[in-house]
């Protein structure tokens, strides 16, 4: 077994040295350049097929029904499984257009971006009698507007009509943020899941919400506070996040659903999928965006608990937050984002092994089914759908960024091919109702444009990322990493700490994308493979360490890490 260890170390070292030392801009040496160009063109065509048909048949309503060539005002339906309290007089908020703005910029269509921003500037209003899901509206609408505002005002000068953009999207975003605030008016500070945009929280509103629902607001609301100079949005989101974190169990686990009035858990079982996923994602990404050590500490504890209690080889099951005992053995399509997050955390080997399993399931069915019962090795009887979800494409993009292993380009190509084969129809892309029959459903979700197409495009053409480091929100909207937004720069961002590198590339490479959040520095002799601080060892059976030798050297302190009694590497037990 110890040769496996050595291989793993060698590989980690190789990946790191590739990322750090090899000149990546010389595309003429890249044998994959032609393929990448062909594939990015293909993805661009997919995006426009979805976008143009939305504009033709659905705009300014929310989403396209591609089979019947009509629309749905779905912002009020998102997360509303029983379709209760639907508005009578709501005609949509151009949801898919808002979600497309950053994709238009990434694909280089500044004319269409300008036109859309100006349309929204003049025509969008949130003074509507619609009860919306706070989480969905935050990630899709607030995130879309805030990101587009930043892209409209950065140094790139994307607008031809000078002076036509006067922060209208930011004004709209602030108005929306204000309409969110009544939801936070609870004894716990945990927000209601539902709020009416015009009238606030409705009478007898349900007090039940999810961990994601109150733990994934900080990126958008924090960015809004930084842009407007008004701290109230960030404060509300932060208060909710801190309260949520205080409700963790002694194992550092959280449940899936809770009561916002009492602050008590309703569902004690949780995993990394639906209802919890973006909570973990936002802890790490908030640290990247705002440079607060508090987020990092939360993330590291939460991440280690996930790896300890949910992970079984490359799979993740659910467990009871109180006991850590496994509850449900299910693979869900949403979990496929996890390897992407692991890349940001520097845990490449674990990301790679999980990602492969998700891709094998994708290959087995042609797409990823919503839920698969690992213990019975069968599809969940009522969740056989695939609604054009982005998570596997997203993870593939992150893994390719980190490793440059061309295998991930093949994965991307295979995803593109199956989407075109199974979901492309005359007027857009349709969701799949049943992956065993490939029967279609009349819905093109806005996240197909905001995320699925965007991540596939970025996999083959990442020129958007060359000059700025971005954090992508859980809906795929880019927010730039600005040192002026950082409370305190993580040490990994301070070039003088980079003992092994010289030159101006350093600053640029201090990026979430190049693993600097869990940096692997060169400790002294230059040949010793150094572990990333966040890595949970992957080499042994059960993915735990047996001896201190398995744990390598901590990249920040350059101290040897040691293996704890329960089989985890760290500094906490070092002698
Ligand atoms: C929605 O559209 C209908 C039909 O065009 C119109 O009568 C109604 O006033 C609109 N509602 C709102 C809130 O704009
Ligand atoms: C931008 O999008 C519009 C609408 O789809 C399209 O007509 C135009 O050709 C696109 N421009 C570029 C440069 O891709
Ligand atoms: C606002 O919407 C109206 C009706 O669709 C349209 O005529 C007008 O041009 C829009 N404003 C902008 C700036 O596009
Ligand atoms: C990913 O896993 C495959 C199969 O185990 C292995 O061949 C490859 O080297 C791994 N890549 C990385 C970057 O860990
Ligand atoms: C780990 C490490 O070397 N941290 C150092 C980074 O740089 C600052 C200031 O130069 C030092 O104070 C840290 O100790």
From TrEMBL:
Its cofactor is Ca(2+). GO terms for cellular component: endoplasmic reticulum quality control compartment; membrane. Coiled coil: none annotated. It comes from the Eukaryota. One of its GO terms (biological process) is endoplasmic reticulum mannose trimming. It is found in: Endoplasmic reticulum. The keyword Endoplasmic reticulum applies. Residues 1-26 form the signal peptide. SUPFAM superfamilies: Seven-hairpin glycosidases. The keyword Transferase does not apply. Keywords: Calcium, Endoplasmic reticulum, Glycoprotein, Glycosidase, Hydrolase, Metal-binding, Signal. Its EC number is 3.2.1.-. The active site is at 136 (proton donor), 277, 370 (proton donor), 391. GO terms for molecular function: calcium ion binding; mannosyl-oligosaccharide 1,2-alpha-mannosidase activity. It is an enzyme of class 3 (hydrolase). Its main location: endoplasmic reticulum. Belongs to the glycosyl hydrolase 47 family. PANTHER family: ER DEGRADATION-ENHANCING ALPHA-MANNOSIDASE-LIKE PROTEIN 1, ER DEGRADATION-ENHANCING ALPHA-MANNOSIDASE-LIKE PROTEIN 2. This is alpha-1,2-Mannosidase. It comes from Erythranthe guttata.
């Amino acid at each position: 077994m110890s040769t496996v260890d050595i291989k793993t170390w060698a590989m980690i070292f190789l990946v790191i040295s590739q990322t750090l030392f090899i000149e990546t801009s010389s595309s003429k040496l890249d044998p994959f350049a032609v393929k990448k160009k062909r594939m990015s063109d293909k993805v661009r065509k997919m995006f426009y097929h979805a976008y143009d048909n939305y504009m033709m048949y659905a705009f300014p309503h929310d989403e396209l029904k591609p089979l019947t060539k009509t629309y749905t005002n779905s912002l009020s339906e998102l997360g509303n499984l029983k379709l209760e309290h639907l508005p009578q007089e709501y005609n949509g908020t151009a949801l898919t257009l808002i979600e497309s703005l950053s994709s238009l910029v990434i694909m280089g269509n500044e004319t269409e971006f300008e036109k859309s921003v100006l349309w929204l500037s003049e025509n969008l209003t949130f003074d509507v009698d619609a009860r919306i899901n706070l989480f969905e509206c935050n990630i899709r609408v607030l995130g879309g507007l805030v990101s587009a505002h930043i892209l409209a005002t950065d140094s790139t000068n994307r607008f031809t009509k000078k002076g036509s953009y006067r922060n209208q999207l930011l004004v709209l975003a602030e108005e929306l943020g204000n309409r969110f605030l009544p939801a936070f008016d609870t004894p716990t500070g945990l927000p209601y899941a539902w709020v009416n945009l015009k009238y606030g929280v409705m009478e007898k509103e349900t007090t039940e919400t999810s961990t994601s629902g109150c733990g994934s607001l900080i990126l958008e609301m924090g960015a809004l506070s930084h842009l407007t100079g008004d701290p109230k949005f960030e404060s509300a989101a932060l208060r909710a996040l801190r309260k949520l974190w205080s409700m963790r169990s002694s194992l550092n686990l959280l449940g899936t659903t809770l009561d916002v009035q009492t602050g008590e858990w309703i569902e004690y079982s949780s995993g990394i999928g639906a209802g919890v996923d973006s909570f973990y994602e936002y802890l790490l990404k908030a640290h990247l965006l705002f440079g607060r050590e508090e987020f990092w500490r939360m993330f590291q504890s939460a991440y280690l608990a996930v790896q300890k209690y949910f992970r079984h080889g490359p799979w993740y099951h659910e467990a009871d937050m109180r006991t850590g005992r496994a509850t449900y053995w299910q693979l869900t399509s949403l979990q496929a984002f996890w390897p992407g997050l692991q890349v940001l955390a520097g845990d490449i080997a674990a990301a790679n092994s999980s990602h492969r399993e998700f891709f094998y399931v994708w290959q087995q069915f042609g797409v990823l089914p919503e839920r698969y019962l690992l213990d019975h090795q069968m599809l969940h009887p009522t969740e056989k759908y695939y609604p054009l979800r982005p998570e596997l494409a997203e993870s593939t993009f992150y893994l390719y960024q980190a490793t440059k292993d061309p295998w991930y380009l093949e994965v991307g190509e295979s995803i593109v091919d199956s989407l075109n084969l199974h979901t492309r129809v005359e007027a857009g892309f349709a969701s799949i109702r049943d992956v065993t029959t490939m029967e279609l459903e009349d819905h093109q979700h806005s996240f197909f444009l905001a995320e699925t197409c965007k991540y596939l495009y970025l996999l083959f053409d990442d020129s958007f990322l060359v000059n700025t480091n971005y954090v992508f929100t859980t809906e795929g909207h880019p927010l730039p990493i600005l040192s002026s937004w950082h409370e305190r720069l993580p040490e990994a961002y301070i070039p003088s700490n980079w003992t092994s590198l010289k030159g101006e590339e350093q600053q640029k490479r201090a990026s979430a994308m190049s693993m600097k959040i869990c940096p692997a520095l060169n400790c002294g002799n230059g040949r010793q493979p150094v572990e990333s601080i966040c890595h949970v060892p992957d080499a042994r059976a059960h993915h735990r360490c047996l001896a201190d030798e398995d744990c390598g050297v901590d990249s920040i302190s350059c101290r040897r890490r040691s293996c704890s009694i329960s089989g985890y590497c760290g500094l906490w037990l070092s002698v």
